[in-house]
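User:
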Amino acid sequence: MNFKTFRMGGVHPPEGKLTSGKSIETFPVGAEMVFMASQQLGAPSEVLVAKGDKVLVGQPIAKASAFMSAQLHSSVSGTVSKVETIVDASGYPKPAIYITVEGDEWVPEIDRSETLVKECTLEPKEIIDRISKAGIVGMGGATFPAHVKLSVPPDKKAEFLIINGVECEPFLTSDHRLMLEKPDELLVGISILRRALGNPKTVIGIERNKMDAINLLTEKAKNYEGIEVQPLMVKYPQGGEKQLIEAVTQREVPAGGLPIAVGAVVQNVGTAYAVYEAVQKNKPLFERVVTVTGPSLSKPGNFLVRVGTPISQLLEAAGGLPEDTGKVISGGPMMGKALKNIDAPVTKGTSGVLVLPTKLAERKEPATCIRCAKCSSGCPMGLEPWLLYKLGQGSDTEWMEKEDIMSCIECGCCSFTCPANLPLLDFIRLGKWMTGAMIRARNAKK
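Assistant: Predicted structure:
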């Protein structure tokens, strides 16, 4: 096999794939569900329901307010108890819809059978409209509305459709299990995405630590036109769009550019599966696979969870918080965010919940930078993290813009490699926020 990878930077953190052999379990529905009103990158969604309204599984409860936005559907049937703010996973108050669960009644349009529906004769616009109506977003964590990615500008052409099965973030295994347990549904979803884009060259990128998925999908793909599997070397952050595009196509997305600038569209395997369910089964995106894991958890696993489920319930199902818990993270250890509130609900972008013991969660005491350049060598975007760290501390937004801070993908490679234990990414994120605000203010004056 020809194992490819991206050229610049990257690191090799311990994999920690404790749940790679754990089959997906369907998680039970709780007594009350909480839905963040907006669960996508872009414009916020507009709430459609009010206190006292009755809802069914699959019914819209918030609508897209703009093209760069997404619909939200209830994952349960019951009564809206209130619409008010909740502290989200990052600690910020956000609008939320609370629903008291009463049974499990679905809207009649959804096909709940397990029968594989392979043929799709819809036109590209019809496919994209169904994906938009189903509220599908990028399932890898970025939550970019899927219909926006598929709406290629008239002056561009999608030459490559790349399906992201890399899952390079340590500990997470939800994509891996989905590839193993739903290969045909996944491949039908990929075929539908191909059709929506005019049947470009289609490649599923999977790292070599998932040889079972590589072998299974390579064999299964023989029955699906135009789809191939590309085995990849193991290197973080190969799941990043720009790094995956380079690994598969040897094309580099220009600074500040989008993947379509080099003829590529990237979708996560979870997104492709959601597309199958939306187009072939009329099922909106209201549930997803979530990995709940950690070195000290007694019952880690992969769960099919309905959106709106409190994360605290997932932790209880995994055996409860261990005594040595130091941090609970939404996502993986490299790019995930520490939870301020474990009662925050699962959203469309919740790929995993990681419980780190104190010995792994504690930050070591920072020392003096010795200019070793390990952070620069590890940066997959070719930036100078040590310089951006200093500029972030000094709030020099113009210099940070010149040093291309907005190209940082916040992968954490710099902090991971730093022998001085400096909080590089913290100040680079702060610098990005300040520089982005400056750029937006400047553009608003034009």
